[in-house]
Amino acid sequence: MRVVLAEDLFLLRDGLVRMLEAYDFEIAAAVESGPELSRALAELKPDVAVVDVRLPPSHTDEGLQCVLAARRERPGLPVLVLSQHVEQLYARELLADGDGGIGYLLKDRVFDAGQFVDAVRRVAAGGTAMDPQVISQLLSRRARDKPIGGLTPREREVMELMAQGRSNAAIASQMVITERAVAKHTSNIFGKLGLPPSDDDNRRVLAVLAYLDRG
Amino acid sequence: MTKAIQSRVQGSLLATGRAFVLTFASIAGSVTLFVLSVLSLAFIPLGVGLLTTPWVTEQVRAHANRRRLLAVTWSDVRIPVPYRPLPGDTGEGLAGQVRRTVLLLRDPATWRDLQWLLVDMTAGAFVLVLVVGLTVYPAEALVLAAGLWRVYEDHRYWYAFVPVDSQTSALYALTLGAALFVAGLWANRPLLRLHFVLARSVLAPTHEQELARRIDRLTETRHEAVDTAASELRRIERDLHDGAQARLVAMGMSLGTIEALVEKDPAQAKKLLAMARQSSAEALTELRDLVRGIHPPVLAERGLGDAVKALALRLPVASEVSVELPGRAGAPVESAAYFAVSETLTNAVKHAGADRIWVDVHHADGMLRISVTDNGGGGAVVGAGSGLSGIERRLGTFDGVLAVSSPAGGPTMVTMEIPCALS
Fold first, then answer.
1. Strands B401-405 and B356-364
2. Closest CB to B284 among A60, A87, A108
3. Which of the four pLDDT bands, split at 50, 70 and 90, describes residue B131?
4. pLDDT band at A215, cuts 50/70/90?
5. Engineering a disulfide at B283: which of A202, B208, B244, B337 sits with its beta carbon 3.0 to 4.6 angstroms away?
6. Does residue A99 contact residue A75 with C-beta atoms inside 8 Å?
7. Cβ separation of B313 and A141 shorter than 8 Å?
8. CA B186, B192, B194 angle in degrees (round to 5)?
């Protein structure tokens, strides 16, 4: 799988290259600025891009703007955005086109290499990987409202994992329950939220996020 | 055309009405207050004046402030308030009264007020009478021409400079009256304005006063800015020292222990590694919060508009944000505005019990204006150690101001204005 990596801090870029290579990714390019990233995305057509939000030369949200522009050129281009902080505002912008293949994670998540690589693969496959921080912010914001408040603690847990983009199997292993139990929880959740059930991981996350985001 | 005339007549009549009201309500007040002031000052050597002067001065100031208000609402003439702030606690009893009197007498504005009372009851009154006259006097010409001239057939009646003793001369008078009325149509409003401009020329602070006030204010806000910056630095130092720094030290220690244990007791080493990783994650979280407290990342990346939007997204209350900023303000201004909004929103969520909040951010006439409105219980006040006075101080450094409208029962509207240019 070919990856384009954009990160301006040498140490982090180097670390990410090593880690991804260790997990059998092919690094097509590892760049350190916005213009370089745009060029690499256009020319190399990678399977997935792993990008820092803040990039030179502007040191603002250049990385984010680059991938948003690249996705307008090539809809559905899988992009995993990393940031020192996660902001709902950015999560919304990334999810706005509804094409999937989007990840938005705190940089700390690279601490757990296994989970991080899993997120990269999920995004590359067209799924989503939302940082738990974004999800919990969204959930706490909506906690007062009826439908979410009506979930049992167990269902809430499932919901959080589901919203991050995990598959039923992943949720089952994380919560140490059977996949059947997860499936039961998810259908209950969809029932309580009034969402039509769907097998598509990506669509169900988008639906959940869209629902959470409303209002 | 007829519309234009109609509005001119209406405007002129309105100005006349206002002048009429002012002539009676205010000029009488000016005369009374001037006499009282002079008497009160004269009695100071006897001691009685010490008791009455603060009261009289207060009345004079209220009187002047009423005129300031009318000047703005009726003729759009802004007269700044030059009074020096009295210290809140001048002491009880006679000693306090004396101190208050001395403070008031030292304020040049007190003497300028007296001057104004004099001008107001002479020149000011004259202008007002002129306005009323230009509308009322023509009426007399009309009555004369309509037949009242007959009464004066035997002895002359002077309508202005026209001797009236026949229908013809009465018609001359009517012509003059009409001319006066027409003149009034054009002159009444400017004349009323002139009255307020006259008041402004005496009441508004002089250039020196203005400068002195500005220096006072700058000194005050500089002290506050320095204090705030110093305490902020102390807080950051403490947070780093007790938080991230301590965690990194602990991590280093764990790693040292792991080094020693890795062969002897791999299971224990693994446990310690997990703990070290946990520590580093916590250190990161703390650093992140610290950075957010110093300069929020979204603010740095996107500017005030999006930072406020991001702020609103994190609120537990439904909120609407409208932003109209054609550029970015200077970083210090953005930061001050951001934290002011942040604190206002926190207040609204914590104290107002609101379930809806509206934030409006826009820039016009070199002024950044932000209003935060909630539909909560109201009753918020500036001062008395409330969070709002903290915001006021924060904005003060940039010559910004804060206005709060919060009647008991709500809603609360907090408005902030900071003069600044966008780039």
1. unpaired
2. A108
3. confident
4. very low
5. B244
6. yes
7. yes
8. 100
Nearest residue of A to residue B318, measured between CA atoms? A215
Q: Which of B156-170, B219-233, B307-321, B343-357 has the lowest mean pLDDT?
A: B156-170
Distance between first and last Cα of chain B: 45
Give the SS3 label for residue B319: strand
> What residue ranges do the domains of chain B occupy?
3-203, 214-294, 301-419
Q: Which chain B residues touch A61 with a CB distance below 8 Å? A: 301-302
Q: What is the pLDDT of residue B243?
A: 85
**Domains in chain A with CATH codes:** 2-143 (3.40.50.2300), 153-213 (1.10.10.10)
Signed CA dihedral, A201, A203, A209, A211: sign only: negative
Give me the residues of B, 262-321, that contact A with CB < 8 A. 277, 280-281, 284-285, 288, 291-292, 297-298, 300-302, 306, 309-310, 313-316, 318
Cβ-defined contact of B313 to A88 (cutoff 8 Å): yes
Q: What is the pLDDT of residues B236-261, one digit of tens each?
A: 999 888 888 888 888 888 899 998 89
What is the complex's ipTM, to 2 decimals?
A: 0.77
Q: What is the pLDDT of residues B292-348, one digit of tens each?
A: 888 899 999 999 999 999 998 888 888 899 999 998 999 999 999 999 999 999 888
Does A87 contact B310 at a Cβ distance shorter than 8 Å?
A: yes
Q: Taking the domain B301-419, which CATH number applies?
A: 3.30.565.10
What DSSP state is assigned to residue B92?
S
What are the chain A neighbours of B285 within 8 Å (beta carbons)?
108
Query: Which of B298, B330, B332, B333 has its CA nearest to residue B314?
Result: B298
Computed on alpha carbons and rounded to an integer, the radius of gyration of chain A in Å comes to 17
Name the least confident of A107-111, B48-52, B282-286. B48-52
Question: In angstroms, rounded to a whole number, what is the distance separating the alpha carbons of residues B181 and B133?
Answer: 9
Residue of A nearest to B320 (CA): A215
Question: What residues of chain A lie within 8 A of the CB of B298, using their CB?
Answer: 87, 89
CA–CA distance, B324 with B401 (Å, rounded to integer): 20
